[in-house]
Amino acid sequence: MRPDRRLGDSRRRGAIAIAALAATVTLLVLVPHPLWGLQGDPQMAVDEVRTFFGISPRLVIWAVAQMHLLFAAFVLGVPVFTVIVEFIGWRTGDIRYDRLAREFTRLFAAAFATTAALGGLLAFTLFGLYPSFATYFVRIFAPSMYVYAAFFFVETALLYLYYNSWRALQHRKGLHITIGVLLNLAGSSLMLIGTAWTAYMMSPVGVDSAGAFVGTTLQAIANPLWIPLTIHRTFGNVAFGGFVVGAYAAVRFLSSTTDEAKAHYDWMGYVGNFIGVSALIPLPFAGYYLGREIYSASPVMGNNMMGGAFSWAFIIHAILVGMLFITSNFYLWAGMGRIPGAERYTRFIKYFNVIIIGCVAVWITPRNIPLSAGEQLSLGTQVHPILGYFGLMSAKNAVINFVILATFASFLLYRRGNKTDLQPVSQQSRRAKTALLGAGALCLALLGWYTRALLTLSPASLNLAPEKASYFVLPILLLVTTMAAVVVCVSLTLRDRGHLAQQIYVGLVAVESVLVIGVYGFFVMRGANPFLRQLAAAQWILLMSALLLVTAIDLLLFRGARRVGPIRWGTVNPISQYALIALAVTNVMTMGLMAFVRSGLRENWHIYGVMKDTSQWAFTPSFAVMARMVGGITVVFLSAVTFLFWLAHLGARGDGLSDGETAPRPLTET
Amino acid sequence: MSSWIKLPAFVLVLIGLFVWAGDVVSRAAGFGGPVGLGSGVGVERGREVFWGAGKCYTCHRVGPRGSAVRGPALGRDGGVAFETRAAERSRALSTAMSATDYIVESLAQPSAYLAPGFKNEMPRVYEPPISLDAEQIASVVLYLQSIDGAPDPAAIHLPAELRSARSGVTASRSWQPYMEGDAARGRRLFFDPRGPAPCARCHIVDSAGGRVGPDLTAIAGTRGPEYILESILRPSATIAGGYETVLIETTRGRILDGIIRDQTADSVFLVTAEGDSIALATGAIARQRIQETSLMPGDLAEVLTVADLHDLLAYLLTLR
Fold this sequence. Notes:
The complex is a heterodimer.
Chain A: H1 3-30, H2 33-36, H3 57-92, H4 95-129, H5 131-164, H6 173-202, H7 217-221, H8 226-255, H9 259-280, H10 283-297, H11 299-306, H12 313-335, H13 343-363, H14 373-379, H15 387-390, H16 393-415, E1 419-420, H17 430-455, H18 473-494, H19 498-527, H20 532-557, E2 562-563, H21 575-600, E3 605-607, E4 611-612, H22 623-654, H23 659-662
Helix pairs in contact in A: 1-5, 3-4, 3-6, 3-8, 3-22, 4-5, 4-22, 5-6, 6-8, 8-9, 8-10, 8-21, 10-11, 12-13, 12-16, 12-21, 13-16, 16-19, 16-20, 17-18, 17-20, 18-19, 18-20, 19-20, 21-22
Chain B: H1 3-29, H2 43-50, H3 82-93, H4 99-108, H5 134-148, H6 160-163, H7 183-191, E1 204-205, E2 208-209, H8 219-222, H9 225-233, E3 246-250, E4 255-263, E5 267-271, E6 277-281, E7 285-290, H10 300-303, H11 306-316
Antiparallel strand pairs in B: 1-2, 3-4, 3-7, 4-5, 5-6
């Protein structure tokens, strides 16, 4: 067959495949209107629960659901950045990115079938062990289950197409990347549907006072926690995918025998960590939004989460997330060893880590420190007079902001490790300067939007007396000041004072977001507690503006800078690879913990406030039980992933791909 | 050491640390496992409900106990006394409201009045997901009364929605009497010392009657008909808090049973089924144990006719 003929066939096949996909999606979305509008009338039934050969059904569902969630997070998260990495390779012409994207694809393709099998097992165990609940659920969600199955077929087809057409479409990257984007859309659609089911169990809608469902499937899907949970999951999946890929690279690095392979996996680990941390940074905000919506959907559930028994889970959560940030910083610090010129900045990283450790210490301090009766008597209260303040939301919000700022600063230093002799911004292209102005305008829009929201906020909407509007003044002033700072900093950058602009903006936001709002929050909690949510949002917007503007300035500042020397990939201290593995393990445990919290918040309800779990297993397990369970699941998950990756590696060899081919030459640049 | 040994060992150490942290936090948090639901109405049960199933503690603190700030601190120690809130409420409504009425209103209609500075987000505790029943709610009211003073069951008048509250079951399913009773005849039965059910020998209504059992002056204000019926026919099924029968063996071998009316560091005051009060020195008590059976006669189902029973019930349901 002649090459041009093959190309033509491949183009035709691709067009047919895409047309078929488009038709399927259109059919699914538009046609089954009566199905979506179906009125359900499930009535409360006797709560039938069975054991799994004598084992608690709750433990079985827990283990299966968690395994499915972990695999699903991986196969949904990795394709997101795989397509981005492939796109970077295409646009920059750097073949390494293309090969890295293909290697990522090999990994999630290996995990795909297991994810599907676990999903099936979860459905079977639910039907087998909790038939009453499953029946009730099917009556409400049956139409969406058919759509779910259809999207699953679409995703499977797209995955095979994406993976197998890599070489065939090597010269038609646009089409291949489009298939990757469609793969992500199909995966996201699956996640949206699955998340709607989970969220419905927490915040059911369309239910009458007797517990009967009187709404429609669409109403049930569009329950209050659907979108907040989806956003949180999306960031979580990407972070998880990045860290797992990083751990894979670390294992391969440690077992590699050639410089080429070491260089490749060192670089891959760095990319994995970069992706993980990038998605980790917005996660606390997505989590805060989710928590806020949980409060709005059910104050009882919200209070149980942050003020009740589950508040202790957030101590463990803070330890784990703190470990993620500290370990990431350690990894960056260790990575500076392979960057000539980075010794100029290495010493600063330890100060950032000290800040992060201090912040994590505040973060993990509970409001009620366990005290003996004698200690309580001498204090006269259950709450420590100083440490008690650290247990309040205002302190937690402040330190989370500080942790993110410190990690961000640490990454900026890493980035500029081997760069020197900067090209003045005033001499940069008009396009580059316009990009900076665009970033500044975006910051102004973000800050201005929330300033307006606070200016028009009615105290009555928060059940506050009119005079409490005085509490809104300070955050408004801070936002306006920051808007002025945006203008000043952009101007300074354009006048070749970019470093000063960065210092001013980061310093200002740190003072505003951490010190001023951090302390002011305590006054708000005392005098206008309902306003604390808006204050936290203002804090988040200030921080986001800093991340956005300072990154834009940094990109412009170091554009075209001379390099002191090439990055010596593969020469990193092997201990840093343990940091990558620790990141992945910690992330798996964090996901296990938070899944326990999300599910446990329903307490003894299958569907919160609607369908009660009346079985003997309806109680909430202790944290000790949770930790053993999550620990066990982590071991099983990591073992399964290791096995699957090993299989994928064997497959790659069979395909003629090897370390030598994935890393054809020592990598010397980012 | 090979990385194939070091790596799994490293991972297991991390997981081990996580399990250890779970153990530590579990001990500090002290929750998990099935929770006893308890029964009856009493201050102690109210305390359990407040700090447990009722989840009141997730928003409110009481004096130095607890740390929640989402809702107002309760009681005059560190918060605002219920009397003060009731006075604010009375001024707003232009009608007198007692501290207990204020507590009851706050539970029945949480949004009726908001303490200044707090959001309208308190749930109705008698509806899902909390779903407290009437006894639990009455117990919480008693506990809240006890914060700033003595508990006063007679002052509690639960509105219909609270009286009919049942854990996890909607109000429409609450039990109703089989036939309409004659309340006037029921009153005569109650106070007849020679009748089949001489209730007034042990129970007081509007300052008339004995003081062995609980004061029934406002019994219908805190209990539903199903509970009252059960108390008549199966008095040991649920014994009101503070009215448990106590068996005492003195150091001289004397056996006494009754209800402990009062207790100090030195003495125990016991009331027997006959209404006799006995004071015992603490040092004279060799053993003491709470019994599972009530002092109240358990044979009323045999001595009362169906009509008697419904008349008596009709009378008791008028006591609010």
